[in-house]
Specification:
Layout (H helix, E strand, L loop, with lengths): L1 H5 L4 H31 L2 H12 L3 E2 L5 H31 L6 H34 L11 E2 H18 L2 H10 L5 H6 L1 H15 L5 H24 L4
Parallel strand pairs: 1-2
Helix pairs in contact: 2-4, 3-4, 4-5, 4-6, 5-6, 7-10, 9-10
């Protein structure tokens, strides 16, 4: 009786169970994000100054509302960054029942998902983003001067940083899929060429600009994470 109760449900019921569980937390998450954005809005000028100094850019705006919208975007980004442990916990808690995750497995998934997310965002902010901005603005000349919109600058930085945080989750989801029996390790090992194609598509969709350099800055680490996921699966002896 006990072992049968702990077996994962069929795929259809798993998905339905996940949707029912996550529905319970959507309202609380939405309220938390809205309140956090409102609170962070008053700190956004200081945060914006730090970000602008870090990337050493002079900015301009081209509409009356653009600075306000840019600060709202930045406040939303900071809120998502700070509330990510709560968001991650809600997500994995919703996955726990339909996929029969134990309390120990749930805690492990939450912990490492958060660590990888923050590792990805920090890697992007301190390593990839300065290099990418410097490269893209390296085409400036006497005839071609850059005038950067504050709104587009904030969108570029926040989307790029969040995208890196999300793609760094790849090993965690590879472990989850293999553990749940959805996609065994052998499939990941045999699908490297398809992984390269998929990574290229994801990088082109998630990067704020469609240039090859930004795609490589995201796609390169993503493929390394793919290989890392396979190595971790081997170490954990998950087939």
């Amino acid at each position: 009786m006990t072992s049968a109760a702990q077996e994962p449900a069929p795929p259809g019921k798993r998905l339905l169970g996940f949707l029912l569980e996550i529905r319970k937390t959507i309202l609380s998450l939405a309220c938390g994000i809205a309140l956090g954005t409102f609170a962070c809005y008053f700190l956004s000028p200081q945060i914006f100054a730090v970000m602008q100094d870090h990337l050493q850019q002079q900015l301009a705006f081209f509409s009356v509302a653009e600075p306000f919208i840019a600060h709202v975007k930045l406040a939303l980004f900071v809120t998502l960054f700070l509330l990510m442990p709560w968001i991650v916990f809600c997500f994995w808690r919703a996955m726990a029942r339909p996929f029969a995750l134990s309390a120990k497995a749930l805690a492990s998934f939450v912990l490492f998902t958060c660590l990888l997310f923050y590792a990805g965002t920090l890697f992007c902010y301190f390593v990839t983003l300065p290099f990418g901005v410097k490269f893209l603005l390296g085409f400036e000349s006497e005839q071609l001067k850059s005038v950067i919109s504050v709104g587009k600058f904030v969108s570029f930085v926040t989307i790029f940083v969040l995208a890196f945080g999300l793609i760094f989750e790849l090993p965690i989801f590879m472990i989850f899929f293999a553990r749940a029996g959805i996609c065994p390790r052998s499939t990941f090992e045999k699908s490297r060429r398809y992984a390269v194609l998929f990574i290229s598509i994801v990088a082109s969709l998630l990067t704020p600009t469609p240039d090859v350099v930004n795609m490589l800055l995201m796609g390169g680490p993503l493929y390394l994470l793919y290989e890392m996921g396979i190595i971790v699966l081997k170490i954990m002896k998950i087939n």
